[in-house]
Amino acid sequence: MLDLGAVEATASPAVQTVDLVVIGGGITGAGIARDAALRGLSVVLFEKGDFGSGTSSKSSKLVHGGLRYLEHGEIGLVFESVSERRVQTQVAPRLVRPMPFLIPVYKGAKPSFEIMNLGLWIYDSLALFRAPRMHRTFRGAKAALEVEPQLREEKLRGALEYFDCATDDARLVLENVLDAQAAGARCHNYVEVTGLHRGQGGTIEAVSARDCRTGATQRVACKGVILAAGAWTDESIRKLEVPMARQLLRRTKGVHIVVPRERLPLVRAITLLSPLDGRVMFAIPWRERTVLGTTDTDFEGSADEVCADGQDVRYLYESANGYFPGAKLGPDDVISTWAGLRPLIRGDEDASESETSREHEVFVRDDGMVIIAGGKLTTYRRMAKQVVDVTVRALVARELLSADRLAPAGTKHRPLPGAVGLDPPTLEAVAGIGRELMARHGLDLDTATHLCGVYGVRSWQLAERIAAAPHLGQRLDPELPYVWAEIDFAVQHDLAVTLEDVLARRVPLLLTSRDQGLGVCEAVAARMAELAAWSPELLTRNLEEYRHEVALSRRWQQG
Ligand code: FAD
Fold first, then answer.
1. Beta-carbon neighbour count of residue 215 at 10 Å?
2. What is the separation of C-alpha 42 from the centre of its chain, rounded to a whole number of angstroms?
3. Hey, which residues does 522 pair with through a beta bridge?
4. Are 524 and 506 a contacting pair, CB within 8 Å?
5. Which residue, judged by its Cα, is nearest atom 4 of ligand 1?
6. pLDDT tens-place string over residues 497-556
7. 316-354 pLDDT, tens per residue?
8. Which of 79-83, 204-208, 215-219 has the lowest mean pLDDT?
């Protein structure tokens, strides 16, 4: 059952009105709930699935300036993104960590080596020369192959290296939700906002929220509503009957495929121009695998069942084969796929998918609703700040809020939960935690590295569990560093409700394990059933839902 605290049940009179209801628990909504709660607003966040289960766990997992946006002249976006990249490396050093990228340049390539070099000088300068590291050049095929031997040698003129950051997108969302909760926000997954209730003059006074697992519905009285529904924005506007003159989004599908590291053993991420259509894509070393992505194609169907098709997958491995001919990647190499929808602002109809801007837009309505659409994972914190700023102004103007009672959110310096107390907030300090986990709790190097890398300072809690019950330190998959203690932790501390929450986002065997977690899912479900007191029916339902998710990620095999 829903337990919403300060809200009214459908039939009863209002108990207390919350300042804000946030709809959507992706990175945008989670960032907004955190920012608003830290300022002192009372906040309820509703997410109809798991936190981060929308686009925010289907990204390329990069916190980046967006080098290619320079090509489109989006200087403002690049500047904002590189500045934000720096902030994120400080508030979440292990979640947003520097990664070297290599751009191989071949004879006749456009832009040329020298233009690329100039572009990277601009990129470094927009970061005020404080990028994780300055870019470097490797002139000639020999120099380029020394740093990345998998590259095609024929016509190779050299390569350029620059630095951006890699992240764990689903965990970035989760840590924002956890911090929002710590600041007093009530965040609910598996609760969908299904209706708006308007008072005199049409202003929104409450929302209806339905528990997706039990069907129970509650009414939540509120002063303002923020819609942060990503790819579901237009659908939500329609369902919630919000008068809107135009469709806000152009949604494009982006697919990634995961292949075994030994089939394409890269040292750095490689920035490629697909030989098939000239689009920018990446080959990224990720966990024990290599990821290839992404596609960018217009999408019209339901955002709830987006998946890779055969054409997407072929495009990705064939593009990679153009750069890494020795790999000879084919369909049998694909371990898993993921697909997400970019919530892009609808603009010039003639622009291609890749040319459509990644900027965001905020719409402040007279009826108490604020809508945020577009944007990137990288700039989520700034987007959240901007949205809460305009929302507060609107509530103050309507005399529903006194600005005096609010404090600054301070998100520019406030660490996310896994970095609290990390002094200094650096990757080296995170490595120090790993060393201590080994010394104090006897963890092996792989487990210690994995736990401190994923959980940061919270890894102490996992290490203590393993010390008390050593079987919890056993691996779920012999090839991968995930251990059983993480299942318990996901349920008890990391807000996982379903088997899919655990195996897709908290401990992502769905994406990384060669059998996508099918071999171990029954044992994991049994453990979750014990921890969360599931009925046999609920256990069966969870297994069915997880197997459906695996099947969805393999649907491309049908053509
Ligand atoms: P979402 O994460 O989709 O969240 C919206 C949420 O709203 C969903 O979880 C949904 O369930 C919920 N919801 C909808 N309706 C309701 C309702 N009525 N009630 C309750 N909940 C509701 N950006 C980067 O910075 N770096 C990258 O490397 C990068 N790579 C990308 C690669 C791909 C393939 C794609 C598609 C995008 C990429 N992006 C990247 C962009 C970035 O991922 C998105 O901009 C961002 O994740 C969008 O977050 P969001 O919270 O707005 O949307």
1. 7
2. 25
3. none
4. no
5. 26
6. 999 999 999 999 999 999 999 999 999 999 999 999 999 999 999 999 999 999 999 999
7. 999 999 999 999 999 999 999 999 999 999 987 667 777
8. 79-83
Q: Which residues pair with 285 in a beta bridge?
A: 290
Burial class, 40, CB count within 10 angstroms (exposed 0-12 / middle 13-18 / buried 19+): middle
Q: How do beta strands 8-9 and 18-23 pair?
A: unpaired
Cα diameter, the chain: 75
Of 419, 462, 12, 457, which Cα lies nearest the Cα of 176? 419
Whole-angstrom Cα distance, residue 15 to residue 480? 49
Length of the chain: 559
CA angle (119, 159, 115) in 5-degree steps: 25
122-158 tens-digit pLDDT: 999 988 877 778 999 999 999 999 999 999 999 999 9
Query: What is the DSSP track for 150-194?
Result: TS--TTEEEEEEEEEEEE-HHHHHHHHHHHHHHTT-EEEESEEEE
Strand positions, DSSP E, 88-170: 96-106, 136-139, 156-167
- Output the six-digit token pair for 506: 């908290």
CA of 344 to the centre of ligand 1 (A): 10
Q: 481: which 2 tokens?
A: 């560093």
Q: Give me Rg for the CA atoms of the chain.
A: 23
Ligand 1 pocket mutation, candidates 32, 56, 296, criterion most atoms within 8 A of CB: 56
Q: What's the Cα-to-Cα distance from 351 to each of 255, 298, 300, rounded to whole Å? A: 20, 11, 17
- Point out which residues pair with 132 in neighbouring strands: none
- 34 touches 185 (CB < 8 A): yes
* DSSP string covering 214-229: T--EEEEEEEEEEE--
DSSP label at residue 278: -
Q: Which of 186, 179, 196 is nearest to 42 (CA)?
A: 186
Q: Where are the alpha helices (DSSP H) in 207-283?
A: 233-239
Residues with CB under 6 A from ligand 1: 23-29, 46-49, 53-56, 58-62, 64, 192-193, 228-232, 236, 254, 294, 340-343, 375-378
Task: Choose among 184, 221, 186: nearest CA to 13.
Answer: 221
Q: Are 143 and 153 in contact (CB under 8 A)?
A: no
